[in-house]
User: What shape does this take?
Amino acid sequence: MNRSLGFTPVRWRAALNLAGVARTSGEVVRGLLEVLHKDGDAKVRGGTAWSLREAARTSEEVVQGLLKALYKDEDVEVCRLAATSLREAARTPGEAVQGLLDALYKDRNAKMRWGAAWSLKEAARTSEEAVRGLLEALNKDRNATVRSCAALSLREAARTSGEAVQGLLEALNKDRNATVRMEAARSLTGIAATSVEVVKGLLEALQDGEAEVRNQAAESLAGAVEMSEEVVQRLLEALQDREAEVRYQAAISLYKQGQRSIEITSLLLEAVRKAEAWMRREVVLFLSEMEPVEKATFDLIWQGLLDNDYDMREACVQALTKLVEQYSVEQKEQFEKKIIRALPTKKFEKTDEYGYPAYDSLYELLWRLVVGDASE
Assistant: This one.
């Protein structure tokens, strides 16, 4: 039966806007639960399920209502959003965890299963049952997205569960899907600092046929215990990888461990100019943590204020603010004068992808230097 009466954005937005009030108002909770179970518009029911996520932490009534939607709603997106909201309740053992596990084991819709896998992330920190369920999904589910979500949700559990580590290593070495292998490598990041077995698995992943897996392995190895000679050597070899992103990530990992060769520094500077936007931002912020920073690096980050990518400009503002902390009072004053001189110049009229002029970034940078970061 199709209950949809047509999408009504006003009611949908009303449901979303009630999320904050639902944490403290029983009347609002009861109203939202009634909408969740009876409204004819699936989008409104889905928005309502999402709005109940905070209330689910403390209200058994909300947990029961979300479980009812999870089991009985005919729209898979409503079910998935109910599962997502149950994530908050699943921080502690109980019916929420069992409901999510039931969905993970039994639901025939893959979208529902990956929603359940993602929502079990918090539960996996403390629940062995949740860990076992995620491991079963990681090893046996036919859908790669479900397996990827299971690998992601096992990240925190892997810090304390040897069983989780073994499952992630097996997925890293054997899963047929590159995204699953990549997520397994990502979830093993924090374990490389203490586990020789994990380091060995990540070194093998540096030879993976897919660049995304090699890239993540190189990143995860940055935390390898004492960066052994073998790890350094393999990362140095990765500097010659056929894919630029892998070369850049290997350079970052080596730089983090104190390797300061001209080749490594050159690759990092090249990454700021040529890598994909997300990596350029990451490298810029990473370089701002280094002391001392060479003039070539500083100048390159300054030029980043003219980048077409809005987030890259923001990253350069953050990086320059951080770098100026190394300056003396006199040097800082000189830099502030440089910003003021640049403000009226033609080149800083250049707009980014959203149409914002580059001088906006100069004003923000100047504000942070003079007044401070408002976000702190």
